[in-house]
Structures are given as C-alpha cells and as structure tokens.
Amino acid sequence: MHTFLIVPTGFGVGLTSISLGLVRALELAGLKVGFCKPIAQQHAGDSGPERSSELIARTHGLQSPKPLERAYVERRLGDGQLAELLEEIINLHQQAAAGHDVVIVEGMVQTRQVSYAGQLNQHLAKSLDAEVILVSAAESENLTELFDRIEILMQMFGGAKAPKVLGVILNKVRYEGAVVEFTRRLPELASLQGGAPLRLLGSIPWQSQLNAPRTRDVADLLGANVLNAGDYEQRRVQQIVLCARAVPNTVQLLKPGVLVVTPGDRDDIILAASLASMNGVPLAGLLLCSDFAPDPRIMELCQGALNAGLPVLTVASNSYDTATNLNRMNQEIPIDDRERAELVTEFVASHIDHEWLRLRCGSPREPHLSPAAFRYQLVKQAQAANLRIVLPEGCEPRTIQAAVICQSRGIARCVLLGNPAEVQSVAKALGIELPEGLEILDPELIRKRYVAPMVELRKGKNLNAPMAEQQLEDSVVLGTMMLALDEVDGLVSGAIHTTANTIRPALQLIKTAPGYQLVSSVFFMLLPDQVVVYGDCAVNPDPNAAELAEIALQSAASATAFGIEPRVAMISYSTGDSGTGSEVEKVREATRLARERQPQLLIDGPLQYDAAAIASVGQQKAPNSPVAGRATVFIFPDLNTGNTTYKAVQRSADCVSVGPMLQGLRKPVNDLSRGALVDDIVYTIALTAVQAANMSEKTEQSR
Predict the structure, then answer these.
(1) Are 230 and 306 in contact (CB under 8 A)?
(2) What is the pLDDT of residue 701?
(3) What SS3 class is residue 142?
(4) SS3 for 268?
(5) How far is the C-alpha of 628 from the C-alpha of 605, rounded, in Å?
(6) For the chain, does the N or the C end have fewer beta carbons within 10 angstroms?
(7) How high is the pLDDT of residue 153?
(8) Each residue of 169-228: pLDDT tens digit?
C-alpha cells in the first residue's frame, strides 16, 4: 500500500482542488484510492464538516475518517503529546487505507494561526512512511521564489539522507512559458536528495470559471440581504465590476457572469443592468451597497429583469469596504457546490501524470517503519491478543500506573502481585482510580499453592518444599511460576529488580525455547526516521562466535515478528577484510555460522556502525554488501559495546528505546530499566503480549 502526502508550498495554492483531481487521476489509472485529511483546517465562517473530506465524499463517493479538530491538536501539542497525536493520526490513516492500493493524505496549510504546519507535515511524512508531492501556485511568485520555497521543503523532508519528495504539481498556471522554464531548472534540485530526480507531476492551467462562486455563495459570505433571489443558485460570479462611472461608460462592462456592485441610490446603473438582463445578458447579479435602499418605483420598472432571474442583493457597507470584502472572500469550493467540484475534479485530473504515479505505486519500495507506526501497531496487536500479563512489582507506583493504562486501553489483562490494601493506597496517593477488571493478587494468600509445582519443576536440582517456599517469597519467582503453569501469558519486571533477578527464575523455571541455547535481549530503537533493532545490549557479557550467531538469528526473528524487515549487520571496529584480530575474527565467524543456519537471511559482517547505517558510507566501504547502508538489525560483539552504544544513541539522539525484550525463552519474560518511565512500562507490557501471541501461534503451527 502506497501513501502520498500532498503538501502546499504556501497559502492559497488550491490544495483541496488538487486533492480532488489527484484522487480522480489515480482512480482513472485503475487504482483503489483512499483519502485522509488528518487535521481539519476550517476557514473563518465554516461551520459544518471539514471541506476536503466532505467534497471527496460527495464527488467520489469515498468516505474518509473524520479529521481531528485543530483545537484538539493544539492542546495535544501544547501538552507535549506529539507521539500520542501521531498514533491517533496513524489510526486515521489505517482506516483510510483499508481495502485500497494508495492513500492520498492532505497535509496542513501554514497560516498565521497555524505556524506549526510545516513541522507537523514533516512528522506526518515520517510517521506514515509517505512520499511527498509538493503543490504550488505559479500565479503569485516568480521562479526564484518558487524554487527557494521548494528547496526549503525538500530539506525539511529529509534531504539527501532520506529522499521523500517525489515531485511538484503546479496549480493556477497563467503562462506556459513558466512551466517550460520550471521544468528546465528542476534538475538543480536533485542534489538536495542524493541525486534522486524531482518530477513535474502536473501543470494545471488557470481557468477563471473553475474559481467562479455562485451568486448565492457571495450572498452567504457577505451576509447580504436578498431582495430578489432569482437564479442565484445557478448563476456564477466570473467578474466583479464596481460601477462608479456614468451609464454610457458602464454599458460595455455588462457581460455574462459579471456581478455589478453599485450604491443603492444609483438608479441609472440599476436600470442599465436590468435592461441588459432583459436583453439576454446573464449577469451574475446586482449588489447594492452603502445602505441605500433602491427606489421601489425603479424596482417596479425592473420587474421584467427580476422575473427573468436577475439576483439582487444589498449590503450596508460602503463601496470601498464592499469591494474589500469581496476581494477577501473565501474562494474555496462550498461543500454543496457539486457542479463546481466535479468540474474542478475532472479538469485537475486531466492535467496530472497519472500513468507515472500508477507505475510508482507498483514499483518495489523499501518500507520504513516509523516510531509512531511501530507504537501504534504494537498497541493494536496487543489489544487484539487480549492476553494476561503478570507484574510482580505490584505495589510500585509506575507499575500501577502502567497497569491502569493497559487495562483501560485493552492492551493487556494485567495481574498485579501485591497486598491489595497497599496497592489501593498507592493508587490513591497517585490520584488514580483502579479500573474494573484489574486483578490484584496477594502473594501471601496464593504462595503455598505453587510450592509443590515448583518442587516438581526443580526436582533434578534437589529442591525441597521449604526451599521452594522460601524462594517463592520473591514475587518475581512467584510470577514466573504462574507463567510456567500457563496461568498467565507473560511477565514484566525490573522497575525495582535487577536484570539478574528477572532472568534467573526464568532460566530455572521457563527454560530456553526449542532450538536455542541461550537467552539474549534486543532493544527497539525508535530513531527519528525508522525503528531498528539492537542486540544484545543487556544480557550476555562476551558471547563466543556460536553464541553471537544465535543472538543474530534470535534478533532477526524478533524484528520480523514486529514488522521490521531484517537486514542484519554484525558490528565490529573493522569492515570486511580490512582488519584482523581476535574480536574481528569472532564477528566474521559468527556471520558465517548464522549464514549456514539461515542462508536466506540478509546478514553481513564484520561491518563498522557507519558502514551499516549510512548509505553513502556503506557504498564506499562495502559496495557489494546486501546490508551495508540499510541495516535494520545491529548485532554488537559484546555487552560493553552494545550497552554503551544503545545508551549513547538513546541520549544523544533523544530517541525512545523499547526494551530490553528477552528472546530465546520458551515463554515471554521481559526486563525493565530501573529508570523506566510509565510509558516505557506500558510499551513493554504491550511488547510482551505480542511476543506471547507470536509464540503461541508458532506452537500451534508446529503441532
């Protein structure tokens, strides 16, 4: 599924018109098209549904999700909730994408009231993994100004590192020569995105009739008093003439589609306009200003014109103010003007290169899973799984908050291990109410029933009942026994326990999954542009080559399970054959062993981090590598390197890391950093639920 984000280069470029035409053009190309306007931008005076979405519905019969209100978006941004806002927008995008080949997303227009539009459009492009189509109006700025605007936007949307801008649609083109010159200069912009060409995807000539409002629209927008409606629902204002001259000098101006604006006491102009109308000139109407009521005797003489459909409106403002108000009038298509919307749709569609866009939609494209999309998918998958997750640190404040969020959002059915009175007391101190259905189990009341099963599980280690009861005093051990007996689907701990406290009971009671010899960990690193996997950064201090190969295979499987296409880079201080030494040889041997076990997996090493992550460096240092420059899974040679790198990237790049997620166990047990935030715990619970669902599915398939 492809996504195009259309972004205006300025105000008044005709973004809605381009949306209408682009949807039709792609439909003509044989594609199933969805539409999404994530954030409503109502024009002053608008009161009903959001204009773009409603016009798309009325002209294409295409229902799109209801946009978020601008005030709501601004509250979210003001509260520092950009990540949550982007997840909501991804939800809207997913609704629009259902059953479609391509989705058109209409970006925000920057105005004095919406100064943040450019930055939010940038986040939309990344979060939705969208390709950007810029929309510009060639009528109001010279080519130098236009190119400067486009250059700024291209740099904003990624530049050479992550080219996102496909091309430009020029709207309201008055001079064909401007298009020729624009096309000639387009190659100048290719350097801004690593040489990737920028295309002119459409050139829409200026057509005044497409911008002609109905006379009724003028009446509504000015709040005019309607003396005679006539044909004001059908007649369109193609030109406005302010009549201050004498009648002989006015006659030649009385043409079809003209709205005659004159003071109400200009009987001569009123009579002239009426005569023209009676002689078959379909004027748009008469707009009488300056709060002068027309003479009833004159209006009686004009009755023939009124009966023939001449609209007559009055406003209280003087000639100058009326002309100013008309000039400032909203030119957008009213949502009930089906005729104009259809004309605009067909005209714009006929000038867009829909065949090239169709081929683009069918071309293989490397997907990027954005941080917002990762979090959204993670929560949705966890909600669908509806699994039971035990939290041994049930009285810890952050854990209680996370459990309340997960229970309320349906992410998981959480089980808190702790004294119910103490849990209630902590919740009250936090000012939160425990939701119905949130389980709280008192370890003192349930501990004894796990003694015999634990003795049975550890009988090979000479564990007796008193020893088991003593070990079960540890709530992590108790929670692990619940998991071992399939009473819960996963366990999350570590807010106040060390990694060893979490992993040791799991190794003793859960044990490793079939085919694996060790337990390792991964972090999901939510970088600005995409999500990548780091392993192992939390468990194995100095794995040998065979263990490192197993970590690589476990991490690749984890990436796949969470929607990340695995391209595994085995990290070292040397790339390819350029270096020697025991550490490099370990990585080289681990790469060979991993390839032997899974020949179809894209894996390469040794690779330096920059060669693995940056396309230009990868091309230079490892030009024949299938992974260099595009790695999604980074395997570090030891814990010292992995943990240091993950923390450096997390802090320096100010990115969120989800994990560590333990891998290689028969059932999911996951560790938390002792500095974990509430959101970190929520996402780790979600991660555990999804991991449990994937394990259960694999078990079913193997039977």
Answers:
(1) yes
(2) 59
(3) coil
(4) helix
(5) 9
(6) C
(7) 83
(8) 988 888 777 788 888 888 877 777 666 778 889 888 888 888 889 999 899 888 899 999
The rounded distance, in Å, linking the Cα atoms of 605 and 297 is 95
415 sits in which H/E element = strand 413-417
Sign of CA dihedral 237, 242, 245, 247: positive
Confidence bin at 697 (pLDDT 50/70/90): confident
- The amino acid sitting at 62 is L
* Gap between the Cα atoms of 591 and 279, Å rounded: 89
Which run of H or of E encompasses 44?
none
Q: How far apart are CA 103 and CA 290, in angstroms?
A: 49
Candidates 570, 587, 575, 588; CA nearest to 634 is 570
Read off the amino acid at residue 195.
G
Task: Give the pLDDT confidence score for residue 162 in this predicted structure.
Answer: 53
The beta strands (E) that lie in 124-272 are given as: 131-137, 165-173, 199-205, 225-228, 239-242, 258-263
DSSP string covering 545-589, please? Answer: HHHHHHHHHHHHHHHHHTT---EEEEE-SS-TTS--SHHHHHHHH
Q: How far is residue 671's CA from residue 250's CA, in Å, rounded to a whole number?
A: 84
Q: How far out from the chain centre does Cα 14 lie?
A: 23
Contact yes or no for 107/41 (Cβ under 8 A): no
In this prediction, residues 81-105 reach a mean pLDDT of: 91
Contact between 693 and 385 under an 8 Å Cβ cutoff? The reply is yes
CB atoms within 10 A of CB 327: 8
Rounded Cα distance between 534 and 547, Å, is 16
Give the max Cα distance, the chain. Answer: 116
Contacts of 637 (CB under 8 A, 6+ apart): 543, 548, 570, 571, 572, 583, 586, 587
Look at residue 367 in the predicted model and tell me its pLDDT.
67
Q: What is the pLDDT of residues 462-509, one digit of tens each?
A: 888 999 889 999 999 999 999 999 999 999 998 888 888 888 899 889
Confidence (pTM): 0.75
CB atoms within 10 A of CB 614: 17
DSSP string, 326-354: HHTS--SPPTT-HHHHHHHHHHHHTTB-H
Amino acid making up residue 120:
L
Cβ(376)–Cβ(91) under 8 Å? yes
Burial class (CB in 10 A: 0-12, 13-18, 19+), 195: exposed
Helices (H), 108-214: 117-127, 143-156, 176-185
Crossing angle for the helix pair 545-561 and 678-702, to the nearest 10 degrees: 100
d(CA 534, CA 516): 19
CB 410 within 8 A of CB 383: yes
Nearest to 215 by CA among 275, 273, 286, 271: 286
Q: What is the pLDDT of residue 608?
A: 93
Give, for 91, the enclosing helix (H) or strand (E). helix 82-97
Collect all residues with Cβ–Cβ distance below 8 Å to 436 and sequence separation of at least 6: none
| 605-622 pLDDT per residue, tens | 899 999 999 888 998 999
Instruction: State how far the Cα of 593 lies from the Cα of 613, in Å rounded to an integer.
Output: 23
pLDDT bracket for residue 159 (50, 70, 90): low
Q: Is the pLDDT of residue 160 over 50?
A: no
